[in-house]
Amino acid sequence: MSTLAGQLQKMEAHNSIFESAVRQLPLPVCAAFGAADGPQAVSFANSSRVLSTKDSDSVAKSFPNSVQASGNVVLSSAGANTKAAQGKRVAVLFSGGPASGGHNVVCGIKRVLGKGNTLFGVKPGPKGLLLGNLFEITDADVGNVINTGGFDFLGTDRTKIKSDDQFAQVKATCVKHNLDAIVVIGGDDSNTNAAVLAEFLFKGVKADGSGVQVIGVPKTIDGDLQIGDLLPISFGFDTATKIYSEMVGNILQDTRSSLKYWHFIKLMGRSASHVAIEVALQTKPAVTIISEEVAEKKQSLASIVEQIAQTVVLRSGKGMNHGVVLIPEGLIEFIPEMNTLIAELNDALAHDTAEFAALADDAKSAFVQGKLSADNARLLASLPDYVVRKLLADRDSHGNLQVSLIPTEQLLVDMVKARVKIIDAKVPFDAHCHFLGYEGRCGAPTLFDAAYTYNLGLTAGSLILDGRTGYMATITGLTSGGSPQAIPLTGLLNIERRHGQDEFVIEKALVKMDSPAMTYFVSRRADWSADDLFSSPGPRQLWGTSAYQQPISVALNSGSGSLAFKIG
Amino acid sequence: MSTLAGQLQKMEAHNSIFESAVRQLPLPVCAAFGAADGPQAVSFANSSRVLSTKDSDSVAKSFPNSVQASGNVVLSSAGANTKAAQGKRVAVLFSGGPASGGHNVVCGIKRVLGKGNTLFGVKPGPKGLLLGNLFEITDADVGNVINTGGFDFLGTDRTKIKSDDQFAQVKATCVKHNLDAIVVIGGDDSNTNAAVLAEFLFKGVKADGSGVQVIGVPKTIDGDLQIGDLLPISFGFDTATKIYSEMVGNILQDTRSSLKYWHFIKLMGRSASHVAIEVALQTKPAVTIISEEVAEKKQSLASIVEQIAQTVVLRSGKGMNHGVVLIPEGLIEFIPEMNTLIAELNDALAHDTAEFAALADDAKSAFVQGKLSADNARLLASLPDYVVRKLLADRDSHGNLQVSLIPTEQLLVDMVKARVKIIDAKVPFDAHCHFLGYEGRCGAPTLFDAAYTYNLGLTAGSLILDGRTGYMATITGLTSGGSPQAIPLTGLLNIERRHGQDEFVIEKALVKMDSPAMTYFVSRRADWSADDLFSSPGPRQLWGTSAYQQPISVALNSGSGSLAFKIG
């Protein structure tokens, strides 16, 4: 075997040159944790902030132990914890879609727990907790996964723990493994689940009557888990949007190089348009649709198409037969007429499920047409086959349409093409479609996400060693050194009617029309349409002067004076 | 306006933090050019290498001036050019699809021409040369575009200069702008065109009877322009494959995090599978199809499907219901039965074009069925509608099928799904499709491409100042400091029958079954199928220890002892 072949084989299984280099990258820690090479647990004390929602009274009734213990008061770090617990047995799990930085949360927890406590990994996700599938995480594991992307160290899944049976299984796992605490790394739903678990496990789990602590860590690439200055952004958003921004920037440069294509790019991010607005701020394309604005202005599908088609014609008149259109994944549901159609379809499909599933595609369409109102039947009939098929496809486990499967980008291309032809048949329009999603969830974390998540892990571990339960770890002041804090989960809960039942939920943060990020975007977008003013943010760097960047939308919304972040 | 808003607006139009930083990145130069901060032109002398092809005699008859001047001998640099020409007027253009590093070629030419000569940019591509659309490139332009991706500084197009009329237009442009030389930055076809232009413009262009020099520069992300150790790789390949490799690596990590998806990823790269094999070597996915191997083994579509389906079942048996399949863009044409079908379709569609175009989709299929042999009619009928539609779509200007439009990845997903169900209905198979292409052509160049292209530019400029014409610039010894050389274009030309006519072509380099890269890939792929041994090469870095990487396939094929490159 040649020397090189030998080297190459050693690079298998997560040992690329980059992965080996990035494991050595030092991570800063908030001053509260002491030295970066030996971070210490902090203790916590009540701050002066109390959280509440419109449903706080009902929440207090359903979560009596948690609310009584926390008073819904935000905790701030209060110096080194000289009386940190020892001998704790802690389990950590990922929940929901993966996001970059998850491994560093685990690493931070392990480091702060130190040799006096034991950390277990749960495989995979909440399902692993039900199955009791735990293993001990070692220092070697930390050295191996630190600064790498993905959730592949533990795996993840989307099991929602709600039934009595499931709660009993969780309790059995806690007892069997003699657990003292569980850390749930997840999004809004997973943190709601963490709140429910914290209450359920508050006491009476172990033989001595004590409970099991539950701490949440805020993850989601969608950016829809935000709580003002207490949680300017969840982890994973920065890495995902920087990956998408690089790709969009590359494609923008391609449009102006090749001079003949439009690219319609759908961006993952569920309902909210945080990802779309961040990528737009990074790259400045000709058109970016913001779902929340479409809903606010009650735009029809035809009016969105008109807006894009007019931009195509405008730019063509200036010699630019190229451009980029950004489309948020959840757009369809924010178009009022489409939302009405989908709601009626969801209702229609909730009954006669088996009968419907047995039908052929054509018959499905006919079957449904008969159950719709005249307006909706007309709208459905106006859509191309490939969209109708997706609208009638299987619902997810919650009975909802899987919006990400609808090829909104292709639908808009086809409709814009037809419209441009009517406005001015001489305008060339040749378009490509993209969906950027999975490639952004598991990339190596940006320096921002790497540092942020490591410190979130240190915070989560500190909360456990301080005996806390029912909190979500957070780091505030991300441009001024960073400060570990804890958000009482019950202070975030609202009641929402879902599938005919009242459910506790953490409200998804949508893009606000009056937010600084939206306001800035609105102030610039006409210029970006009229001329090629795009930028190419390039591949995220882990070394060098361009490595220290926070998301632009977060910087704007939090009133930062620059894009630089500063932890430690 | 807030401070930050002001900063953001200054970042528009190619002024992202990354773009501003990367402009300051110092580039190494081959020792032959002297100091990196003031590179000097080199002169050239004949080496001992003479190039020939099976058609060299015919080429000598058609390119008498070029062959007589060069003797088809490779040139090596021969020290600083103390008698470098002054007052030269040089035009540079991009030709064909964009590739990262093109801007640095222009920068290298401008730097080596210095103040004593003038460089013009041609907009866009060969079409700009016909139109005489030239502008003077300034030092400020160089400072602005250096190390940025794309061809957007000049634009590009795919016009092939072949008719007498077009040649006359080129001559008119040369006369009008009093040009002394033209640099064509392009792939195999563009460099063939450069050879033809060099011969045509050899003499008698200007009033004094002198000619216009033509120099080619080897570009293509496809990697199919390779000439052994004289040209181990064209520029743009490294950046494109590193971008694709990052995306594939991210998706691989997602598969092992989410634990439920297969991803079928088609990779741009035209006919050859160089891109696919490089990305496979970088990431180690479960399955990579190599088109050249499919052709060599005369595999049917069904046998490829069987191979993937068996891997799906094998991995499922080990608890892995996930994986990645890499598919080269040109695969369809390498499957013998599909190739036969496409050839017959191309013939059938070359006649009655207008009549055919006027038909509806269904009628098109029926129309063609009647013109096919029984075997091909059967094969066509067995393919899903969405593939048939693409097979019958408009041909390109050369009468060829636009292979990149065929959704091979979706076709394979659908066929594998059906096959897995037959082999073992209990095996879950849920798949997503991707096509990685446009996002890889215009990204910021890797350090390898940035340094390589800058030195290619220095070489091309030096060739002009040394009075040479009909050569392609190259840099050999990319791991030992780099050495400027020049390849006589006529030494590369073969005669191929295309569309019923003899044409001169530079043969496309395909993946060789006995190459070290293929051999190494074959030796490892069974292990990569059986277990998750993937690596994530991460975002390409411009700073830090992981920045100095050449392509793995190039390192293997050129017998390098490591992946590091060394220029200067």
Automatic annotation (TrEMBL), chains A, B:
Pfam families: PFK. It comes from the Bacteria. The keyword Magnesium applies. InterPro entries: ATP_PFK, Phosphofructokinase_dom, PKF_sf. Its EC number is 2.7.1.90. Transmembrane segments: none annotated. Keywords: Cytoplasm, Glycolysis, Kinase, Magnesium, Metal-binding, Transferase. The keyword Kinase applies. Its cofactor is Mg(2+). One of its GO terms (biological process) is fructose 6-phosphate metabolic process. Residues 89-461 form the Phosphofructokinase domain. One of its GO terms (molecular function) is diphosphate-fructose-6-phosphate 1-phosphotransferase activity. It catalyses: beta-D-fructose 6-phosphate + diphosphate = beta-D-fructose 1,6-bisphosphate + phosphate + H(+). GO terms for cellular component: cytosol. Coiled coil: none annotated. Catalyzes the phosphorylation of D-fructose 6-phosphate, the first committing step of glycolysis. Uses inorganic phosphate (PPi) as phosphoryl donor instead of ATP like common ATP-dependent phosphofructokinases (ATP-PFKs), which renders the reaction reversible, and can thus function both in glycolysis and gluconeogenesis. Consistently, PPi-PFK can replace the enzymes of both the forward (ATP-PFK) and reverse (fructose-bisphosphatase (FBPase)) reactions. Belongs to the phosphofructokinase type A (PFKA) family. This is Pyrophosphate--fructose 6-phosphate 1-phosphotransferase subunit beta. It comes from Candidatus Propionivibrio aalborgensis. The lineage of its organism: Bacteria, Pseudomonadati, Pseudomonadota, Betaproteobacteria, Rhodocyclales.
